[in-house]
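Continuing the series of single-chain predictions for the mutant panel. This is the parent chain; the variants come on the following pages.
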Amino acid sequence: MTTPDTYDSAEQLADAVIAAVGKHIVLGLPIGIGKPAHIVDALYRRAQADRSISLDIFTGLTLEKPRGGSELERRFLAPLNERLYARWPEPLYAADLRSRALPPNVSVREFYLRPGAYLGNPLVQQSYTSVNYSQVASELKRLGVNVVAQLVGVDPAMPGRYSLGSNPEVTLDLLPYIEEQRRNGKAVAVVAQTNRNMPYMTGDAELSGDRVDLLLDDEALDFPLFALPNRRVSPADYATAMHVASLVPDGGTLQLGIGSLSDAVAHCLKLRQQSPEVFAGTLERLPGGPGTKRRAELPVETGAFDKGLFASSELLSDALFALYESGLIRRPAGAGDNSLMHAGFFVGSERLYAALRALDDAERGKIRMTAISEVNTLFGDETRKREQRRDARFVNETMMLTLLGAAVSDALDDGRIVSGVGGQFDFVSMAHALDDACSILMCRARRESGGKLRSNIRWSYAHTTVPRHYRDVYVSEYGVAATRGKTDKDIIDAMLCIADSAFQDELLDAARRAGKIEPDYALPADARNNTPDALRELFERDELGRHFPPYPLGTDFTPVEQELVDALEWLKSRTASGWSRLTLALRALPRAPLSKNRQALERMGLEQPKGFGQTLLCRLLDLGIEESKQ
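Parent structure:
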């Protein structure tokens, strides 16, 4: 077995890449944490210095330290960044993308952006590539990819072998193409950088040394993996998650994404397993609960899990791993596969990475990190995949819904990309192809934007990610809308019932004007109390509150930082316009900061403000802390 040419210098390895493939480099990089940062930077520096080099980068989800948009946000983030990301090597190309200073001989195309990060960046918006996750490998082949580069894990017990760790998903789909190109005499290279913080995942994710051409191996270059702090879970998130958890059958298959809604779903599934009576009682009291006629259209699952679940998900997140740790994910895939979980990539908290590193061989073998074509499609042994994915529930999040059943998940109506389609449509279409599956898209019924409350359920929208003819199950904090196979009139009825009551009348008027519903239609009485107050009243009761913690999967935020996060979000939602900022400043200035908030002010460096500007910030923050507790 051959071994890769090994270097301890990224610069020398970059020279070896150019010597191997020439000066036209089409570089495929994995999504998220699997990017070999030092190799990418070395190639980028070569291209900066030598304009005869052409460097085309194709990737997704370039992770950077968070940057605040206001002085208060920057004060909050500075210590957090030092604590979590001091040694995270941000790619050089990312800084030049931000400043729109990319060299003319370098292009960066991403198929999935950090949500909301580039709405105001024309360079990124213009170079975004919209493809389903399952199509990324095909797109790279079309572009003529000749270098695949990846961060890999190593294990002293596995000499001469490497693990694709967090990101086997696209690399495994590309390797046969790369090897075919090599056999045909084309100049190609598989390049890897070792990192001992990368969990060593076995099975499909393992590579023998003869499949890697060039290797950067220097322990001094190891860096911590990018950690995503878990977000706070709100009462509305929990209400949505309770409805979702009641749709998951015992013995079925689960796909679950990332974010506070997914964290809430994981927690509610665990609650259903551990305290089914609490789960059933809470569900009964929710708007849109099992007592309503509309909820009776789908089975209501409230019992504990006997068989457990099998997980088949493009992403292994903290939420999914929490279900695995709790023993709820325990049904083997079947069809000759004893693993309990299939996933294409992982990204999450440091706790997730540490837990994966700590798995023993037997436990590690239960998690099959594999190709994205394996988890996001039915292609390739469709019979086996259908058998494994019985009673599948593919659970994802969307930004907005239309009253006629389309979903808006990746872009705004003017075409600007918020994030990307990722694998969402893969799972929506797969749900329609499987006999007993459903796509469940979660959507918050309302949001505050520009200082105004807005409905996330719209009559229409200029852009959609999931077209209305792929409609299925939609869930908001106010219940479940089963839309597959329904007429437009019945879809409108179902969607109105999960809309916020503040917007139901105007949505209904729009449907009437379009002639899509009868003039005398009346909204069901049990859908008329779809309000945040109704949810807060339920979840903040003493007997229920202890079952629904604000950070069910833990958090990297200290208790003081948790308080500050709530305050900053409150302030941001109320200072979107110049008038609202002035109004809030006039309200905050006369008040003296409360002594009980001193720790929070100290954390922000505002306990002894200097000058008018800091005094105003101090008093605004104190007001935000108090108001966000209401």
